[in-house]
Write a structure and sequence with these properties.
The complex is a heterodimer of chains A (378) and B (249).
Chain A (H helix, E strand, L loop, with lengths): L1 H16 L1 H21 L7 E7 L4 H12 L3 E3 L6 H9 L5 E5 L3 H7 L4 E6 L4 H25 L8 E4 L19 H32 L1 H6 L5 H29 L9 H25 L3 H17 L12 H8 L2 H15 L3 H25 L6
Parallel strand pairs in A: 1-2, 1-3, 4-5
Antiparallel strand pairs in A: 3-4
Chain B lengths: L7 E12 L2 E12 L3 E6 L5 H8 L7 E6 L2 E2 L4 H6 L1 E4 L11 H11 L4 H15 L14 H12 L6 E5 L7 H16 L3 E5 L3 H4 L4 E6 L2 E6 L1 H7 L5 H14 L1
Parallel strand pairs in B: 3-8, 3-9, 6-7, 7-8
Antiparallel strand pairs in B: 1-2, 1-4, 4-5, 9-10
Helix pairs in contact in B: 3-4, 5-6
């Protein structure tokens, strides 16, 4: 215990003497949240829309007005022909084409239903999906309006995507009613932050001692494996929690992201997750000799963890085999926990399953890495 | 403890280390008496570092045995570590910590009390003339001083044996001289000094030297004995003759 105290003091002295490290700890959460929360969004704003209005009636103009008023779409000065619209799409001057056929208003009145065509640039499938969602909503709303103004028109105007069956979607955004993607992204970014701090700092810190030769020096002293590992992990563990605290404060007060659940639970689960992250760093440090190698290996592992965590793409849309792998990914479980607590106000009972898996993962990686760390070469 | 002062503090018998099919250290045997300054010489790649790493408990032997400070390195490596000091060829104090912090850290690791650490720190900086730099980061003091400091820290806990792996690499002759004075002072208190070096003039300062070629010890004795045996004027001549013979064979 006495030895551990001396080792801990040494670690904390080194960490806080490293100005780069301190600056990184303070600035990283702010910069990451600022950049990623705004950049890593699925929202599509001001998609450029070309309208081919062949009807030229008050009803068709009304629909166009709704598109413009939604601010989701930005009207491209209209070419008249369909061909001109196609060209605009090809030149990437437009991301969507709305074609309103000649009989639009007449059909609305006579047949009580009408069709419009929406062509989307689906190079980016996710963005196209989002645009479709916006368009359907605008059209549905407009149809609803018409039902009350035009006699005999029911709210059944439908969008027909080329080659797609008719869709009709009613959405209600629970937990995030404004559908603000930042709310969704911020907990994920905090997870990513904790992952990076835990894994990278641990691996680099230990490998640096390897490079300097001080690790060998320590291995020739009576310092035990347990003391060494505890002295390395405890400071970095507290540093990870500090980073999370800063990140949470920034998220709460700068981005106004709600923390609906218990803050204590956030830190409690983070403590468990950090053990897993730190252990991965420790494991990497036992496998490599230089900080460069450590960077490379850690980067690879963290990238896989993050990609398989549901940060950017939902785990449910992955192929089955990938979903199985994701089940064993502590980052995925922690991501679920963080989103649950922060956005849905989930309590211990709701996150129990994820927390249990997380604890098992952490224990497993920790045990493995401790076994792997040897004071002596056999 | 199983051995007392005046006895042998290092006993090596047929110590061997193989890496795959390559035998880095090939059945070496020698003894070192308590308080002796023992020079462990050999060309680069002769197996010196591998041998040292086995003696300090960093590397398990493939065959043979070695006892250091009375403990078997294969079975009681941790007990060996309590009773030895080690200074590697790579400078290994923490450069981002101050002189005092480094001394305190190693004092604490070797179980010295707070009072003892305090006392040792004062003695050490007085002896090394580092009083003004006690709160300076180690990286800011000159290399020669760093090495003297590293040595002093390695013997802070009065170990039975101190292992020095090329301790004077890259320092000027005056500092090397001072360094050897430190070695003698330490040996005079009964600590065995086991030192590897590239500088053959330093070999002359040792009580006894061994010369390793291709994993084997090919010569062992006092500098005077070796010079007589090989009819050489200096240990340097002895070394060159043996090393060349080894390479030729």
């Amino acid at each position: 215990m006495r030895i551990l105290r001396f080792l801990l003091r040494k670690e904390y002295l080194q960490i806080f003497r490293d100005h780069f490290m301190v600056a990184q700890m303070l600035l990283l959460p702010c910069i990451q949240l600022a950049i990623l929360a705004n950049a890593a969004t699925f929202e599509v704003k001001g998609a450029r829309l070309v309208v081919v209005d062949e009807d030229r009636t008050s009803s068709s103009r009304g629909l166009i007005d709704r598109f413009v008023a939604s601010r989701r779409f930005e009207l491209v000065p209209s070419p008249i022909s369909t061909r001109g619209a196609d060209d605009a799409m090809l030149r990437r001057e437009a991301g969507a084409i709305l074609r309103i056929p000649t009989a639009f208003e007449r059909d609305l009145v006579r047949a009580r239903a009408a069709q419009v065509q929406l062509v989307l640039n689906a190079e980016d499938g996710a963005a196209a999906g989002v645009m479709l969602g916006y368009a359907q909503r605008i059209i549905a709303d407009y149809a609803g309006e018409l039902a009350t103004t035009l006699p005999g028109v029911s709210a059944s105007m439908a969008v027909t995507r080329v080659g797609q069956p008719t869709l009709d979607v009613r959405t209600r955004g629970w937990y995030n009613p404004e559908l603000d993607y930042r709310f969704y992204m911020v907990p994920g970014i905090l997870v990513q932050l904790v992952t990076m701090v835990g894994t990278f700092l641990t691996a680099l810190n230990i490998v640096r001692e390897k490079e300097l030769g001080t690790l060998e020096q320590l291995n020739v002293t009576p310092v035990t494996r347990g003391q060494f590992i505890a002295a390395k992990l405890i400071p970095l563990w507290s540093l990870g929690l500090l980073g999370l605290a800063i990140g949470l404060a920034v998220a709460r007060y700068a981005f106004h992201v709600p923390i609906r659940g218990s803050v204590l639970l956030v830190f409690g689960t983070a403590s468990v997750y950090l053990l897993a992250a730190l252990s991965v760093g420790l494991l990497v440090s036992t496998m490599v000799e230089t900080q460069q190698q450590a960077m490379f290996v850690t980067f690879f592992i963290v990238l896989v963890y993050l990609l398989m965590s549901g940060l950017f793409t939902p785990v449910r849309s992955m192929p089955t085999w990938a979903q199985w792998i994701a089940q064993a990914n502590p980052t995925m479980h922690y991501m679920e926990i963080m989103r649950g607590i922060m956005l849905r106000g989930a309590g211990l009972r709701e996150i129990a399953r994820h927390l249990a898996v997380l604890a098992v993962c952490a224990a497993a990686v920790f045990t493995l890495s401790v076994r792997q760390y040897a004071k002596r070469v056999a | 403890m199983t051995s007392a002062l005046g006895e042998r503090s290092i006993e090596v018998d047929g110590l061997t280390r193989r890496f795959g099919t390559f035998t880095a250290v090939d059945r070496i045997s020698f003894d070192v008496a308590q308080g002796e300054v023992f020079g462990f010489l050999g060309a680069n790649g002769a197996g010196k570092t591998t041998a040292i790493r086995m003696l300090i408990g960093l590397l398990a032997p493939s065959a043979g045995s070695a006892r250091v400070a009375g403990y078997d390195v294969a079975t009681h490596a941790e007990m060996v570590k309590r009773n030895i000091g080690y200074m590697s060829q790579r400078f290994s104090l923490y450069e981002d910590l101050t002189v005092r912090e480094n001394i305190t850290l190693y004092g604490g690791i070797y179980g010295l009390s707070d009072i003892a650490i305090e006392k040792r720190t004062t003695e050490l900086v007085d002896r090394l003339d580092l009083r003004d730099d006690i709160d300076a980061r180690v990286k800011s003091i000159p290399l020669g001083w760093k090495q003297k400091l590293a040595f002093s820290v390695a013997v802070l806990h009065d170990p039975r044996v101190v292992f020095l792996d090329e301790p004077t690499g890259g320092v000027d002759p005056i500092t090397r001289r001072q360094f050897w004075e430190l070695i003698y002072t330490t040996a005079a208190t009964g600590t065995t000094v086991f030192v590897t070096t590239h500088y053959m003039d330093e070999a002359e300062y040792c009580d006894r030297v061994s010369i390793m070629v291709d994993g084997r010890i090919v010569a062992l004795g006092t500098p005077a004995e070796l010079k007589e045996q090989y009819e050489a004027r200096s240990i340097d001549d002895v070394f060159v003759r043996l090393a060349r013979a080894g390479t030729a064979a």
